[in-house]
């Protein structure tokens, strides 16, 4: 059966009337599609509409075949057994009853054609790296990342014709991410896989990219890298068109002025002839009317050309995406190469993470802190930030430090962006704060928006600005999974901001492309409660 997923005139608005989609037509064909777009563009909303989780305001969604949907936020009952979470508990119970000699017809009805369901379930679990958990454990005994993979296993067991994944690698550690990548790599057949993600490694595994922008989908063949190359070519061409349109607009303005000056000279000459009465009035009157009619036509012609030039410029400018680079100078964050930033001595932090012996950080090093979920990375960062005391040993920080948590709770929701920055830099004038915020893309009235009204990417930029512009300037910046829930534009903004930062960095992250892009110079891993030195090669190889 041919698989298809089609939107016809699909529209959706939030209860307050805010439109998200208006008459979208799209068809998702076989293979793997990456759905991208800035935060707030409606990617997750579109996925929920495709999955039937939301009801459209207008239009229809047509699905041929069975559909599976993995939402971004997953809540599972921790008391359930693994087989219950996989949806095979009833069939499994019937199989066991038949094996025990119970030939009740109801058992055979329950099994149907699924005589190999246990073998298939264990095979899928094994492919996702979950073979060790079996079918009888409760979900309370598995980690958060394993829960996500378990939900995916349940979908794969159903063999859906259409599979929708919404930010599936969010909050997954490197080990779990690799298993999910393998599942995407092995997706085959006539089925359609649609994934919303900002994960570069995942999006480099798709067959095509669908870019959701201003409620419209634009399609690009190939993976994320091919999409970015095509987009760069498009943007270069769009920038050229803007320059051509600007030149044409200047030309039309100049020609309009010249035409007006020429007509004014003719008018003065005509008035002079009228005043001198060199010709009969009837002749001069006819010439005046003809001149006025000609002047009117010329004025209308030049004004139409000017209007058309403005429209061409507006159209060309619409095709150019807004410059989203953060360019800011932060000289006071600089740390001399020999300066000791922090020292750890026989350290043990909450949840058992420890470092026997000494570990020091000197100068503007950029450190990646890796390890599985639950290993204690966040606890170690909070200890360095002074939010948690060590269980034993020493964790001494010798420079001003700031910590950006995953929750971004450094912002006061009721305050504006400018007011939030002022909390961290009370000595700075309002003009200075706004000038610095403009470098973080909060220009003009955008700096007066309250934190509670910001999108995810804007909230992150506001929190980053508050910390990086703080007084005293932070010479050690601690970032906890900073790219989680960020779209690709926001990740680029973070990278450009960190290029300007001259202090020391410690970043807990599972996002290897991001870590590589910020120039990591040292790798640490929390493994089995022990903090140890590692390398990029070791982290990548797993």
UniProtKB/TrEMBL annotation:
Pfam families: ABC_tran
GO MF annotation, one: ATP hydrolysis activity
Domain ABC transporter: 5-239, 320-542
Coiled coil spans: 242-269
InterPro entries for the chain: AAA+_ATPase, ABC_transporter-like_ATP-bd, ABC_transporter-like_CS, ABCF, P-loop_NTPase
UniProt entry keywords in alphabetical sequence: ATP-binding, Coiled coil, Nucleotide-binding, Repeat
Gene3D superfamilies, A to Z: P-loop containing nucleotide triphosphate hydrolases
Domain of life of the native organism: Bacteria
Protein name (database record): ABC transporter
